[in-house]
């Protein structure tokens, strides 16, 4: 069997359309949406609404961890624009999801990222797209478990949940051969982003499950430029499958 795995698509519909080539199936670990590209401030929902200059200002504040100022800037821009921000954002989100799901190969097994809006996925998923969160599926004789979303942070991204809820989803999987999640287990070298120069949040519940169950692989994304892309916990190979928006190529798992 050959499975291609992607995470952090962030609007790369062009590359996503080719991501299943040569594989029996595709796994997608979430973050389909692009709100703003931290490398190119002209790309994403925010600059489409307010322009690249304002996006650069917004990114600068968030990068400096001046979150209250970033929120104040966003509120002021929305006040100037008028209308309900939720309606404008949902229109933009729906346009991205329509393009991304149309490009998504089949068969594909998907779970949510922290910037996704789960309530909309079923409207755009096509036959052959299986959405899993706190659930398992058998692929080629191996049991794959999926846990979507992220944990609470100061960034307040759309699909962040409490630690307890996240842990319940991990526990619901039981024994799996491959543990698939959007965020990494709570291992420092897997969580540190060398470009953003900060630690992202990882899951203690996932780390505990890996130590207890010892799956063959733990696959995840979320950290775009990690200090370490791989590490081993007992017999489990932990792999950051890569920032798909930046790389445009999937990680391949074969057995």
Describe this structure in words.
It is a single chain. 36% of the residues lie in helices and 22% in strands. It is built from 10 helices and 15 strands. The strands form 4 sheets. Strands 5-6-9-12-14-13 form a 6-stranded mixed sheet, covered by helices on one side. Helix 3 packs antiparallel against helix 4 and helix 7 runs parallel beside helix 9. The longest helix has 19 residues. GO terms for molecular function: hydrolase activity. InterPro entries: Calcineurin-like_PHP (IPR004843), Metallo-depent_PP-like (IPR029052). It comes from Acrocarpospora pleiomorpha.
Keywords:
single chain, 15 strands, 255 residues, globular, Purple Acid Phosphatase, chain A, domain 2, 6-stranded mixed sheet, alpha/beta
């Amino acid at each position: 069997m050959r499975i291609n795995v992607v995470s952090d698509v962030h609007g790369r519909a062009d590359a996503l359309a080719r991501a299943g080539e040569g594989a029996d199936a595709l796994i997608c670990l979430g973050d389909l949406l692009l709100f703003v590209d931290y490398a190119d401030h002209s790309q994403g929902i925010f600059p489409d609404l307010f322009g690249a200059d304002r996006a650069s200002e917004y990114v600068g504040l968030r990068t400096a961890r001046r979150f209250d100022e970033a929120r104040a800037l966003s509120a002021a821009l929305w006040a100037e624009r008028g209308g309900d921000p939720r309606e404008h954002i949902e229109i933009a989100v729906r346009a991205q999801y329509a393009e991304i799901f149309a490009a998504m190969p089949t068969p594909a097994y998907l779970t949510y990222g922290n910037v996704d809006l789960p309530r909309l996925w079923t409207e755009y998923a096509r036959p052959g797209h299986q959405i899993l969160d706190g659930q398992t599926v058998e692929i080629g004789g191996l049991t794959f478990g999926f846990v979507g979303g992220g944990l609470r942070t100061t960034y307040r991204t759309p699909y962040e949940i409490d630690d307890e809820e996240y842990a319940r989803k991990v526990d619901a999987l039981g024994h799996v051969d491959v543990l698939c999640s959007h965020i990494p287990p709570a291992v420092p070298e897997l969580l540190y982003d060398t470009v953003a120069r900060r630690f992202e949040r990882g899951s203690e519940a996932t780390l505990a499950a890996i130590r207890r169950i010892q799956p063959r692989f733990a696959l995840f994304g979320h950290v775009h430029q990690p200090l370490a892309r791989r590490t081993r916990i007992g017999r489990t190979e932990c792999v950051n499958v890569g920032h798909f928006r930046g790389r445009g190529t999937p990680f391949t798992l074969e057995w």
